[in-house]
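Q: Hi! First time doing this. I have a protein sequence and I read that you can turn it into a structure. Is that right? Here it is:
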Amino acid sequence: MSTSRELPPRAGSRAEQERLSRRAQRKREAERRARQRRLLLVIVPIVIALVAVGIGIWWSQRSAQEVAAVQMPDVSKYTSVPHDGRFLGDPNAPVHVIEWGDYQCPACKSFEQRFFPTIVEQYIATGKVRWEFRDFAFIGAESTRAAEAAYCALDQGKFWEFHAALYANQTGENVGAFSDRRLEEIARVVGLDVGQFRSCLRDGTHKEEVQQMIREAQSLGVRATPSFSVNGSAPFTIRSLGDLTQRIEEALP
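A: Yes, that's right. Below is the predicted 3D structure, encoded as structure tokens:
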């Protein structure tokens, strides 16, 4: 009997090699998947960032288009009568009417565009009424911002032009119609020094004055816009132009 130890058959060597080859293949596959995962961790944030930048550019372009859509209304009804700051009409007129308004208020816009030209023609241009506009900005942040912007326009002697442009460009409540960018574009269309206007608005130059008008209106009993006072009367609202003209007629000497 031989005592020597013989080598295993060569077929066994091939089987072992095949096992080792499969193990190496699995290892390489695992490493490949790991590399793919690491690559995804790098690529996905970059793709998300690029998409965000693309959306930002699109939104900026859309905003620019919206800003470019600002309209300038006819303001001849204001410039054809005596005007000084927030006042329209003869300082010696026998009737003083105060209007409290909010630039985001749809009813205020309707009054401004439908009824106020008649008031100007029949009462202000004829020397019967001196008209004053005061802010009761209560609808939201864009209301107070628009009121501050109108004050900044007043500093440059164009309150009533800016006032009319705000109502002409009213598109809803707190929807961006009176964002700072759009207010600046309105200022440009009105003919203001935009740099001076921007500084006034950014610095909040008239913020406290607007708040003071709001507090004063509340103390007088103003609860809605537009509200009116004739020769110091308690504030009142109207359902028709006739409600206001009747009060004016009663106050005339």
